Amino acid sequence: TDRSATTTRPSGEVADMKISDEVMINMTGVNKWFGEFHVLKDINLTVNRGERIVICGPSGSGKSTLIRCINRLEEHQSGSIVIDGTELTDDLKRIDEIRRDVGMVFQHFNLFPHLTILENCTLAPIWVRKTPKKEAEEIAMTYLTRVKIPEQANKYPGQLSGGQQQRVAIARALCMNPSVMLFDEPTSALDPEMIKEVLDVMIDLAQSGMTMLCVTHEMGFARQVANRVIFMDAGMIVEQNAPEPFFTNPQHERTKLFLSQIL
Ligand code: ADP
Ligand code: MG
Known about the structure:
Domain ABC transporter: 25-259
Enzyme class: hydrolase
Oligomer: single chain
Bound molecules: adenosine-5'-diphosphate, magnesium ion
Structural class: alpha/beta
Pfam families: ABC_tran (PF00005)
Order of helices and strands: EEEEEHEEHEHHHEHEHEEHH
Family: Belongs to the ABC transporter superfamily.
Keywords: ATP-binding, Hydrolase, Nucleotide-binding, Transport
C-alpha cells in the first residue's frame, strides 16, 4: 500500500509524491567513535522507499559521518544498518553490493580530472556493473541530457563550472541506477548563481520518486521537496518533523537556535 505525503508546500511541486511502506534504510542503535570522540550517539533512523529527507545541523554535529556510514565510507562500531534488506557487516561482497545501490554526491564533486565527462559517467557501469561500453555511453548520455549538459560529454572536469561539475557528479551516480541517493552539502562549495541549477536537478530527481537523503542548509529546497527534516546536534538526532512544523514550530531550544542562525 502507498500513502501520499499530505503536507501542502509553497510550490506544491512534490507534494503528491508517493512514499512506499517498504523500508530502504534502517539504522538501529548506531554508535560510532573516532578514537575517544563519540561522533554518532544511538542513531535510530528508518527511511522508506520514496522518502526525501533533509538533514541539517551545526558544523561538526555528525551529519557527514551519518550518511558516510550508510555506504560504509565510515564504519560504525555498534548497532545495525540495513540497506534495502542487506545488513552492513564486514562482508566485503555485501559492501560492494550496497555501494552499487547507493549513489553519493559530495560537496567537492570528486570527479576524475583525467577522464572526460562521459568517461567519468561510464567508468563504474563498465567496470563494476559490466555494462557493455556502448550501452553505458547511451545511458550516460541520457543522464547528462537529464542534468542538461549533454554537450559537455567530451570535455574534462576542469573545463566545466562548479555547477556543471556537480551536475555531472549527480549524473554519474545515476548511471549506476541506485535505489537511494545520498547528498552531502552538494551546493555549499558553489557560487550562488550555480546553486539553483544543481537544486533544480535534485528537485527533478525527487519528483521522479528517488529515495534521497540530503545534508543541506538550503531550507527552500527542504520546504519544497523534503517530506521530513532531521536536525542533528552533537552526534544525536535531536528533532525531526515534516518541513512546515519543523520550520514554523521547532520544539527544542537547539533547533530554534540553529534555525534562528540560518533563516
Ligand atoms: P558535520 O558533517 O555535521 O559537519 P562530521 O560528521 O563531518 O560533521 O564530523 C563530526 C565530528 O567528527 C567533527 O567534530 C569532526 O571533527 C569529527 N571527525 C570527522 N571525521 C573524522 C575523522 N576521520 N577522524 C576524527 N574525527 C573526525
Ligand atoms: Mg559535513
